Amino acid sequence: MLTNLIRSSLKRNFVRFTSTSNVALPFLYDLEPKCRSCGIRLQNKDETKPGYYHLRSKQEKEQQKLESSPKTAYEKYMAKLSPEDKELLLGNIFTGAPANHTPKSGPSVKELAKRAYDIKLDETAIECARCRNAKVHSDYKLSQEEFPIHDLNAIMPKIPSDSPIVYVFSGNDFPMGINADIFKYRNPDEVYFIMTKADNLFKKSDAARNFCFTFLTDYFRIKYQVPAKNIYITSAKEGWNSIDLLNFIPESAYIVGNVNSGKSTLIKSLMLHQELENKRDLESDIPFHIKAREKKKFIDRFNQKVGPGISYLPGFTREFLPVTLGGVRSVFDVPGFASDPYIHEFYHRFSDGKTIARLTGGKQTYKFGTYKSKYDSVKGPQVLGLGGIGYLQLPQDSMYQIRNVTNIDYHVFSNIERAVKVSINPSDSLKKKFIIEHDEASLVNFERYVIPPFYGQIELVLENIGYIHIKPVGAKKTNELMVLYLPRGITGMIRQPIVEYIQKTFKDSWEQNLIKGKRGGKGNLVLKRYKGDTPYASILIPATGKITDATGENQSDFDQLNAMTAAKRPYNDKTVINEENKYEYWIEPR
């Protein structure tokens, strides 16, 4: 009763303070126990409700300690040995050491390594049943109750009005992860932006990192008036420049961003960096091969047992979760924003969590997305089957070079009718090509989009998955628009090739990439700069029609495009797209 009285009293006294103060007092969050992985308030009364955890008795805890103790393990394995094996082991006859040999005193190298990489767990840090089942047993139910996802406008009002905001977004699908509504709650110079997953764009030491920073600072300054000092690029997975990143993040900052943007991974990466720094002195006398092995074990245990939970499942973080970085700095892991209201419906169709993890891990642009990368030639009316995640229908009498910068093993179908037929009843050899399986009922619910007219190369971006690089080749014979079918819950857009903004390339007068050895004296080394006079990206145009009844929709596609754009001239069969008007029918995201 006394605890409840203190708790309610503190809440009443500090609620007004925390609504305006940029120091959100992490100890207030400790008044009620929270899950260390997702931040939900814990309860042990009803296992059907959120936040349930199994309250272990003292006897259970002691039994677990007993069962995991080295002495118990030793006795357990000794009991399995035959008398002869025990004699061999205890007699130590393999060492060849003299009987009167006195071993050195003090701990062995292995013992030193284990001490150095020991994890001291906070016994008050409890994990709820949902988080434990999802992480350990891959047992989860994707629902709004268990994995809640909210709109940015529902989350931001809950954050103290003058607290610093750090906005995390993924490099592979930029600028899709940026929601301009953030500036309804903060001025542009009050939001700090971190591009994570940058290891998918370039190598750490690559000059492209500097070029990418130039591109981002240009983009955010021109489009949103965000100063360059508020931009940072990193890879949480690889732990790039952790010290500088720690200094970049303000005290008491709230870490926000879309689901699966890498917020929790970023926070845990900084926590891990600090732990490893603290162990430098302890590991100095340990041989490298032992140190490497024990360090890897430590990192695996740390990621599993310490700090916020990391998961590929959207909506894993459920409440604000206070975390201490560097021993002194407090930040808050915030639930991810919804990019699509049907996102649970989309991810629920995956057969297992490992597939989601592999798919959302991304693929390296510097290996698969440059003009030197391998490509496939595809011609209309062929259809690119994206593992059941989407279907890209190419216009009649057209040809394209396709570079795949996703972990989807796509398949090329002869036409859309064939794609539908095979998707409903795939042969044994094609089943492995489908990440998501379909029947006719699920295909009927696919949404149809037309891709705005373009001139030159573009990239078709799928949120959290990656992108397809598309380059037209040969003479253009039709104004038919490219069509994309997607299930509900996933967002797509097109953009200019990002590699042209983060890597210098050789170009001739027609803006075509040239391989260095074949320049013929015409090429120039060019790094594109974002100037804001043309759109960098465009949304897709929602259109009518079903994938299961894909009859000619040209005129209605034209009408829908013209209705949504502010183009000076309506798009039709006679429209000529060239260098001067190639972005006229693009609709730039806010």
TrEMBL record:
Highest taxon above the source species: Eukaryota
InterPro entries: G_CP_dom (IPR030378), Mito_lipid_metab_GTPase (IPR050896), P-loop_NTPase (IPR027417)
GO cellular component: mitochondrion
Keyword terms, alphabetized: Transit peptide
GO molecular function: GTP binding
Domain CP-type G: 149-340
Keyword Transit peptide among UniProt keywords: yes
Keyword Cell division attributed: no
Subcellular location: Mitochondrion
Function: May be involved in the mitochondrial lipid metabolism.
Protein name: Genetic interactor of prohibitins 3, mitochondrial
Organism: Spathaspora passalidarum (strain NRRL Y-27907 / 11-Y1)
Source organism phylogeny: Eukaryota, Fungi, Dikarya, Ascomycota, Saccharomycotina
